[in-house]
Amino acid sequence: MSNLHAPTVPSGPTTAPVTNGRATHLSIQELQRKKDGIEAELKALGGVLDSHGVDMNTSLLTHDGFPRADIDVAQIRTTRARIIHLRNDWKDLMALIEKRLHEHFASLEDNDDDTTINDATNVNVSLPQDWIPETLDPAFAKVNTVVENSPAATAGLKPGDLIRNFGYVNQENHDGLRKVGECVQGNEGQNILVKISRSSGGGRPQELRLTLTPRRNWGGRGLLGCHILPL
């Protein structure tokens, strides 16, 4: 999906399953970011269900046993399946974070045993890698056009901006920008954090954090008023 003037969520599977085993090598900070991403996606998917007026338990069949014609049954089923998958991922991730935190604080206690009280300068010598500055995700999309007075323009997006993060969406999970459309649809009227890289005329690019609020009735098409292309 290269045109986000009318973002939609596909009715079929959107991403390949992500095994939690891949998270075992991540730092605590990276695990926290992964947890935040899952929670943000769950919130957006909940918004998709809300847009249809259903929840995880609403019947999708008529009293006669036929699929309801007033809702997109295929999309709802796919959304529900993704929510169940993410809930399981979140549960496993929280268990891993708890384990890593216990290991981390246990190592701090061991280090304290080897550090004399008078040698205070050595206490902070070996800071864990979990406290390194946040690394920038690779860009996965480029802003092609921005309509004047649109939500995108109000947020500060400009043509040429490279998008590193769009809410919970990044290079690893954007799925041809389909996840961007899902994030937009599920967060109508809500703030979305967008991290961009902007060229500064030959110098070092600016790394900016923008707040984008998708909304209708701004005077143009769609919820954003911009055209985004995948890299």
TrEMBL record:
KW Chaperone (keyword) present: yes
Domain PDZ: 143-198
Biological process per Gene Ontology, one example term: proteasome regulatory particle assembly
Cited Pfam families: Nas2_N, PDZ_6
Statement: the UniProt record of this protein carries the keyword Chaperone: yes
GO CC annotations, alphabetized: cytoplasm; nucleus
SUPFAM superfamilies, sorted: PDZ domain-like (SSF50156)
Keywords from the UniProt entry: Chaperone
Domain Nas2 N-terminal: 28-106
Transmembrane segments: none
Region (Disordered): 1-21
Coiled-coil annotated residue ranges, if any: none
Family affiliation: Belongs to the proteasome subunit p27 family.
Record protein name field: Probable 26S proteasome regulatory subunit p27
